[in-house]
Amino acid sequence: DNERRLTGLHETAKIDQFSHGVASRASSVRIPRQTDDDGYGYFEDRRPSSNCDPYDVTAALVRTVCLDGDDRKLSMMYVPTTCVNN
């Protein structure tokens, strides 16, 4: 239950406020120190509860962060070809 979990206490963000920070466990989105140092890497969205579909959450993050909400950019992404084993 997100309302009970995201209280802003005990290294969690508040449910009604978005925040981000480097190496911050109290933020909504945590950016690891190494990612900040390198300028690339991963980040952690600490808000979704365990009953979320991880694919839907990932799709929403990619659309928001990488595509600026423009799904047309998906057509420009690399699509690997299938590998056929002989």
Automatic annotation (TrEMBL):
Record-linked InterPro entries: Gln_synth/guanido_kin_cat_dom (IPR014746), Gln_synth_cat_dom (IPR008146), Glutamine_Synthetase (IPR050292)
Cell compartments where the protein resides: Cytoplasm
Entry keywords, A to Z: ATP-binding, Cytoplasm, Ligase, Nucleotide-binding
E.C. number(s) listed in UniProt: 6.3.1.2
Domain GS catalytic: 1-86
GO cellular component: cytoplasm
PROSITE patterns: GS_CATALYTIC
SUPFAM superfamilies, sorted: Glutamine synthetase/guanido kinase
Protein origin, superkingdom: Eukaryota
Key word Ligase present: yes
Gene3D superfamilies assigned to the protein according to its UniProt record, in alphabetical order: Glutamine synthetase/guanido kinase, catalytic domain
Single GO BP term: glutamine biosynthetic process
GO molecular function, one term: ATP binding
PANTHER family recorded: GLUTAMINE SYNTHETASE, GLUTAMINE SYNTHETASE 2 CYTOPLASMIC
Family statement drawn from the similarity comment of this UniProt entry: Belongs to the glutamine synthetase family.
Protein name: glutamine synthetase
Organism: Teladorsagia circumcincta (Brown stomach worm)
